[in-house]
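Thread: Modeling a multi-component assembly for a lab meeting

Hi all, long-time lurker, first post. My supervisor asked me to bring a structural picture of a complex we are working on to next week's group meeting, and I have zero experience with this. I have the sequence lines for every component (465 residues in total). Could someone generate the structure of the whole assembly? Inputs are pasted exactly as I received them:
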Amino acid sequence: MKVIVDMDVCKDHGQCVFAAPEVFQINEDGHLVYVAEPDESLRDAVEEAADVCPLQAITIED
Amino acid sequence: MRTTRRVVIAGASMGGLRAAERLRAAGFTGEIVAIGDEPHLPYNRPPLSKEALATEVTHDALAFRLRPAVADVTWRLGVRVVGADLDARAVWLGDGAELTCDGLVIATGMRPRRLPGPAAGRHVVRTLEDARDLRAELRPGVNVLVVGAGFIGCEVAATARTLGASVTVVAPEDAPMRRPLGYELGTALRRRHEERGVTFLLGRTIAAFLGEIGEMGENRVTGAALSDGTRLDADVVVEAVGSVANTEWLDGNGLDLSDGVLCDGALRVEGRHGVVAVGDIARFPNPRYDGVPRRVEHWSIPTDTAKHAALTLLADLGLGEGIATPFAPLPTFWSDQYELRLQSFGAPALGESDIRVLEGDLGGEVVVGYHRDGELVGVVLIGMPSAAARYRAALLNRTPLAA
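Re: Modeling a multi-component assembly
Sure thing. I ran the full set together rather than chain by chain. Output:
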């Protein structure tokens, strides 16, 4: 599974962090960092993260 | 005679889409028909009061991603649901069609409340077309009157001011976003707006809009008379004075429609097997707080309610076990005004009689806690993004914050 966050669209809300903390984190500067190729076992959590992104900036490629 | 099971979803915005996704995710293989009065597939509305007023934003840019699982959903767009006979499991559409179904998802949402007055130059912000129409009039130097000082009113005021318009906000409360933020935080945010040149006329309402006949024969707004006698000139009026639930089509079915659609704790419409409601039209109890059914107009609610309601509906249709855990969402919303990021977790409105600054200060970045009977029930952050997780966890786990 490949995760792509459109960083031009992302505004660091951090909702994805609550849904999939293994994949998405807010760093000390308040900005989003994420794992680009997370384990397949995290798919449900990543789908949830994509759903709850206020800017809908997260896409998942198989 | 239908041979496959059919679920009709009345409403094709975020709640309708999430309901379709969750029905498929829970294994429903029957037919799903979603009916929407807008001509568009579901799209994300929050940018409409922000980015979409500043630059042209197309439906493509705002459309929700359609998962492969919902590729076979039938979307009947640009047509309104005008009536229903729940006993007969039938809904009627504005084009004269009748649809029968086995299960019904009510997702028709809200529409903006409107004030009376001249039509031209007066706007609301709910749909893509609303934002497009307003954007066309938001030019530097125009006089914009924003009626209502809630979140949408304040976001529109911030965007219009950023675009160079002259902006006045009129509202009956004594501070913007008074409910749920409270007087102190609302007043602190008022100052942020005033520093950027927004004028607030609070404690007042619109007595009447003023108008004149324009070049095209249209009755165009030119200003407003306020309840205290003040007269204001305005080229553009934006009304953000709350919303009305789209429940008229359910009249005659014996439902409690006094404020949205009354649901039980599983999102089932009270007393109606096989009928559920999702999104901001659903009035449901949240045992996280108490047993009082409430509607919640937060962005997180369509997704949360759809997840639970889909399982309830399938269990009613004999296609699943339902869900044993009670529905107890943690409401979440945010607002962007200028460079300010406001995030809310929990239910600040329930703790408005005991509001405390938990961290930071009201003039800058701050965390404000809302308490009921001494217990933290809601948190609002201005900035401080890295603190959000800690406070959200405290609310979720109902643990006292470390001193």
